[in-house]
Design goal:
Strand 1, helix 1 (11-25) and strand 2 (30-36) form a beta-alpha-beta unit. Helix 1 (11-25) runs parallel beside helix 12 and helix 5 packs across helix 8 (170-179). It is globular, with a radius of gyration of 18 Å. The two termini are 18 Å apart. The strands form 3 sheets. The chain has an 8-stranded mixed β-sheet with strand order 3-2-1-4-5-6-12-9, with helices on both faces. It has a two-stranded antiparallel ribbon with strand order 7-8. Strands 10-11 form a two-stranded antiparallel sheet. The protein has helices at 11-25, 43-56, 80-83, 102-111, 126-134, 136-139, 164-168, 170-179, 189-192, 199-209, 213-231, 241-249, 297-315, 321-330; strands spanning 2-7, 30-36, 64-66, 117-121, 145-148, 184-187, 196-197, 238-239, 255-260, 262-264, 275-277, 289-295. The chain has 331 residues and is an alpha/beta fold. The chain has one domain: Inosine-uridine Nucleoside N-ribohydrolase, Chain A, CATH 3.90.245.10. 43% of the residues lie in helices and 16% in strands. Keywords: Glycosidase, Hydrolase. One of its GO terms (molecular function) is hydrolase activity, acting on glycosyl bonds. Residues 3-301 form the Inosine/uridine-preferring nucleoside hydrolase domain. This is Pyrimidine-specific ribonucleoside hydrolase RihA. It comes from Corynebacterium jeddahense.
Length: 331
């Protein structure tokens, strides 16, 4: 299994990267590349954040590149009130040069084959829409696409009806659902908001990570997210959307859903970013999505606990990593 993560780190993206790097260390997947889009912060800053987290997780060799700097049509809006001024809460990634050959990385990965290639998008779909237009022949070869976004028959977190990723670039979301070569596995708010991180769980995770570099940064990264959720009435805890989307998209947690047709409103100021699923087939259009409706959240947290254990063993140079790899694979 090979993975492209298209993300906008982003606090919950950080948790997804921690898990993906552990799975790569354990030999469960190959992390082909990380690309970034403008969303939680600017694409270049997101790339710096992603590269830093990869380094803190012991995988600085994974290619990282910044993608599209602006949404397709709308003016860019970022979310410093949710993820901090630079996207990682109270932590700040060091300055570094940012590569911009993101579409080349995608093309190279696709040319290696797509049967085992999984694209997971945890930010706005700007890069995916731009890639579809610029490289239609490669786009058509994609076989596994997972997206975190949308609020389907569920309250939005940005407007009463819209989720953040779809609201930031609604034209990209609408374009992708109109052109996707395969049904997209859609992990919307109705499922991902159930992936709740508490201070107690964070403390256990940090302890389990041991000497790993990211363990020193994770409390400051996450504290900002806790405070944001408390300010908006969700309590002192955090919704880790992107980690759950990755685990669902790669098939590591049991989940169920409905094959349906999804569309996104792009041009109405009032309904911008609103996603609709035709659950009764009224439109009579071909399905373009598999809307996830249920997922085993406890199993997902179990996988994150496992990832922390893997990282601790890697950081300590522990020979038991091979045994741990086989044990989790059998589970």
């Amino acid at each position: 299994m090979r993975v492209i993560l298209d993300c906008d780190p982003g606090i919950d993206d950080t948790y997804a990267i921690i898990w993906l790097t552990a799975a790569a260390h354990a030999g469960l997947l190959e992390l082909d590349c990380l690309t970034t889009t403008s969303g939680n912060t600017h694409a270049e800053q997101c790339a710096r954040n992603a590269a830093w987290v990869l380094s803190l997780c012991g995988l600085p060799i994974v290619p990282v590149a910044a993608g599209c700097p602006e949404p397709l049509v709308c003016e860019l809006t970022t979310t410093p009130e949710t993820h901090g001024e630079t996207g990682l809460g109270y932590a700040t990634a060091p300055e570094r040069e940012v590569a911009r050959d993101w579409d080349t990385l995608w093309c190279d990965a696709i040319e290696r084959g797509t049967d085992d290639l999984y694209l997971v998008v945890t930010g706005p779909m700007t890069n995916l829409a731009a890639f579809a237009e610029a490289h239609p022949e490669h786009y058509a070869e994609l076989k596994h696409i997972t997206v975190m976004g949308g609020a389907v028959n569920y309250p939005g977190n940005t407007t009463p009806s819209a989720e953040w990723n779809f609201w930031v670039d609604p034209h990209a979301a609408a374009e992708v659902f109109a052109t996707t070569p395969v049904p997209i596995t859609l992990c919307s708010l109705g499922v991902t908001e159930r992936m709740l991180l508490t201070p107690e769980r964070l403390e256990r995770c940090v302890g389990a990570l041991g000497p790993l570099g990211v363990a020193k940064q994770l409390p400051e990264i996450t504290r900002f997210y806790f405070e944001f959720h408390e300010e908006v009435g969700e309590g002192y805890r955090a919704q880790i959307h992107d980690l759950l989307a990755v685990l669902i998209g790669l098939g590591f947690v049991e989940h169920s859903g409905r094959v349906t047709t999804v569309d996104v409103e792009a041009d109405s100021p009032l309904m911008r970013g609103t996603s609709v699923a035709d659950l009764r087939g009224i439109w009579g259009r071909e399905p373009n999505a598999r809307l996830v409706t249920e997922a085993d959240v406890e199993a997902a947290w179990g996988w994150f606990d496992w990832a922390c254990e893997v990282h601790a063993k890697v950081a300590a140079g522990d020979a038991e990593l091979t045994q741990l790899r086989h044990r989790r694979a059998e589970d």
